[in-house]
Design brief:
2 copies of one chain form a homodimer. Chain A is mostly helical. The first copy, chain A, folds into 3 domains: 153 residues, no CATH class; 194 residues, Neurolysin, domain 3 (Orthogonal Bundle), CATH 1.10.1370; 74 residues, no CATH class. Chain A contains 21 helices and 3 strands. In chain A, β2 and β3 form a beta hairpin.
């Protein structure tokens, strides 16, 4: 019996390793596509990626996989499994059920649909043409409704989609979370707007040499403990992180000559994602557990490093001098304190990805409410531009002049990623909640940042979060680290304290 | 019958496309490994490449493949095949027979052996320790002898290995070729050595800014007609070309701040390889015919662009001014003619890859004679250092001070590539033979170079050679292009004429 169990485990992990290796190869091919692959090779590359994805898909949903899962799910076997095998079975079962329940033909149609829709969305956004995108989006929503029927749902239909990105998250929980955020953030934004003090940030838009921006970005990543022997920094149009395996986690940024902070903040943001993936425990290499436990928790790490560390007073007390040395002319009359306030200026904007820490969550709230209503049939795709603009007015006091800067701004829906947006706000909430804990557990937290000992923080996060990968589910990790369930109060406390000080409220 | 034939063809080309796509992915993964993949991800990357290679191997030797080949080889079917299918069957048959005849266990052992030997060879070379490498090399030779028995051979055993890289090449032909080269090149080298005129080339070793070297390399590649929408130039330790598909053919170079010509010449060399692959006819995409027809013909193109164009007087009459503009201080007292002579300086050296046009083929001859003798049991691996040094003395008048600069200098044997070296000299011969033809067919050939109309030459080569890929075998192409079989006389004529002029012989 033990012999059989071991044989089954070995076979199972062999199969899983093959799936993982396909995904590793696909990750490199995609990274390469985004970092300078020649234009004329793109078409064939797409076919190569398609073939490898299909092979991985076949293995994930193979009878062999089904047989292993059935075996491991038997009560007397299941009770004998170690934690890693158990969690691996759990993750494989999720994938298996998810794809097995969708007829192959339907799945293929959906893959083609979303791939066409992504390309069409680009045109629609460029030309401010919602009508062009509308039929595709309607179709994508339809497919998602069918998936929900096939997969089943508990309570709200939208729960099934949320669960794809944040296991265990529900509409019930999110409604409560967003309600608390709204009730405290909307008044905060209003007060900030009315404040007589407004930071001066024009100096951030002078000319800043790109090579020097890169030098600073590399320096900060190194200070954070990003391992350049297990990664690299490149430039791309849109910054991203690619975790191929923990020994190869690559980040990208984008340099704008007239915007100093864009590259610095995106390097820290992607650096946060990368620290998570570089520091997963070696036990989990080659399994589906070798990944962040949820999109929300992943985003919490990018946000933690970008905002909580990277937009803090202590951080710039340490590193502003380095920036001044690189750009002595541009920053000669600016103090560290001026700089800190400038990079934390709050201004309601139309575009989510340009939003500050305070208004960002309002952008997410709009998307959450729209998705929930769409999936529950309360609004139709045709209503989106109108609903979008109404909600923008309500939460942010600004109405987009066109759909390009409104409902068409984000790529997510064209790829079918309904349920993803809340991850961003969950990330912000988790990061503030973790911040509250780490300040208690690491003595002199602010002093440590002021001394630039950022790797002490990285080590703490590794111990508490990173090393576990997907072995623990997000709710377990948050409970284990902070001693309570997700609690949006910490985020609002953090924002209120920080911005009351900056805006002298 | 026609319906069946079409169905079989479709299925066959589907299978082939899958194999090709695996190889495309592997090519990108290898390129990435060599252009900056993080050190810590290398181990897992090797496993990923191993798995994908195994999948491609399985398909190439599958029963499915065997059944297709048997079907297409039937006389009444074979006679109905179009040229592309026929040549594709020919290439697949070669691969299939090659691998099917080797027991799987033996093949795996050999793959592991050569992979270990490559890494060991690096140490042996670094430490000047032939004894360390010897047992591995003995074993590799043994395996090759066994492969020859399994594959069969006609005439000399070494023919079977030659055929792997240059289909149709034999010891009989090569002996005659090398004998002619030796009888005319050895005296030429002696005369050059005795000449009172010796070009001054010290100025090439001043400091040359790397960014400017890159700028010049990119400019020349562009002038040659290298398509940057279907490729890119990167820096690596050892320059190479990766042809992923004709829409994605990447070249690399290496910049030395104290050696201007190294990067220029290697860019043109790799550029020549790349022009070949970028210009294969679209009909052949996705088949095994989408490649250079042999290593010799591939090498002829790198050599053509590097030496025949890139070391010609006409070329530098056109482009030397650009170089002077980039490096006005370093080149201020040097004329285009001085420069031309400097970059063509002939000096017997110990290292093959540093050799000039004239002595290069003597290096290859040494390797050819050693390989032939090893495979025919006339010498043993243990004799190699001694034999190497004797032949160096005989052909080049120089004895290496140690094995690092002698018998251990090249990577090829550690990977089992016996039979490969002659490709370099075949490439030189083909390039001179093609040069003799193109000068007759394109009016004012030298004037065209002087005007920088290099793409006219690229277009001619595309029409005559590149577009055919592997559809035609190397001997067919040479016959079709030049009207005769391979003829080493043109190479020696070219060298004699060129160097008599430079050295005023």
């Amino acid at each position: 019996m033990i012999g059989e169990l071991n044989d089954m485990k070995n076979g199972f992990f062999e199969l899983i390793k093959r799936i993982r290796y396909y995904n590793d190869a696909i990750a490199v091919l995609n990274w390469d596509l985004n970092t300078g692959a020649p234009r004329k090779g793109v078409f064939q590359r797409a076919e190569v990626i398609g073939m490898l994805s299909a092979e991985a898909f076949k293995l994930s949903t193979s009878d062999e996989m089904g047989d292993y899962l059935t075996y491991f799910d038997e009560t007397d076997v299941s009770s004998k499994l170690d934690a890693i095998t158990k969690a691996t079975v759990r993750e494989c079962r999720k994938e298996y059920d998810k794809y097995k329940k969708i007829p192959e033909k339907m799945y293929k149609e959906y893959v083609i649909l979303t791939s066409e829709a992504e390309s069409l969305w680009k045109d629609a956004k460029k030309d401010n043409d919602f009508e062009l995108f509308k039929p595709y989006l309607e179709s994508i929503v339809d497919y998602n409704l069918q998936f929900i029927e096939l997969w089943g749902y508990k309570g709200n239909k939208y729960n099934t989609l949320l669960d794809l990105y944040e296991p265990g998250m529900t509409v019930e929980k999110l409604d409560a979370i967003f309600s608390e955020l709204r009730s405290r953030i909307v008044p905060l934004v209003a007060k900030i707007k009315e404040s007589v003090y407004q930071p001066e940030d024009q100096f951030l838009n002078q000319y800043f040499d790109i090579k020097k921006q890169e030098e600073f970005g590399l320096y900060i990543l190194d200070r954070m403990g990003y391992d350049f022997d297990a990664g690299r920094l490149d430039e791309t149009e849109h910054p991203f992180t690619t975790g191929i395996n923990p020994g190869d986690v690559r980040v990208t940024t984008h340099y704008y000559p007239n915007d100093l902070m864009s590259s610095v903040m995106s390097s820290m943001h992607e650096g946060g994602h990368a620290l998570y993936e570089q520091n997963i425990s070696p036990d989990l290499y080659g399994t589906p557990l070798c990944d962040g436990t949820s999109m929300g928790l992943h985003e919490s790490q990018s946000r933690f490093w970008e905002n909580i560390i990277g937009r803090s007073r202590s951080f710039w007390q340490k590193y502003y001098g380095n920036l001044q040395t690189l750009f002595p002319e541009q920053l000669k009359d600016i103090s560290s304190e001026d700089f800190y306030k400038a990079i934390n200026k709050v201004e309601p904007s139309l575009i989510r990805i340009e939003a500050d820490e305070v208004t960002y969550n309002l952008h997410i709230m709009i998307r959450y409410e729209i998705e929930k209503a769409l999936i529950n049939g309360e609004i139709r795709v045709a209503d989106l531009p109108k609903v979008w603009n109404e909600k923008m007015k309500e939460y942010l006091g600004a109405v987009p002049p066109n759909n390009t800067k409104g409902v068409l701004q984000d790529v997510h829906w064209s790829g079918g990623s309904f349920g993803y947006f809340p991850s961003y706000t969950l990330g912000n909430i988790y990061s503030a909640q973790i911040y509250n804990t780490v300040r208690k557990e690491i003595n002199d937290f602010d002093e440590i940042i002021k001394r630039g000992e950022l790797t002490k923080i990285k080590d703490w996060l590794t111990e508490k979060i990173y090393k576990h990968g997907k072995l623990l589910e997000p709710a377990e990790i948050i409970m284990q680290v902070t001693g309570e369930e997700i609690n949006p109060g910490y985020l609002v406390d953090y924002l209120e304290n920080k911005y009351k000080d900056i805006y002298k409220l």
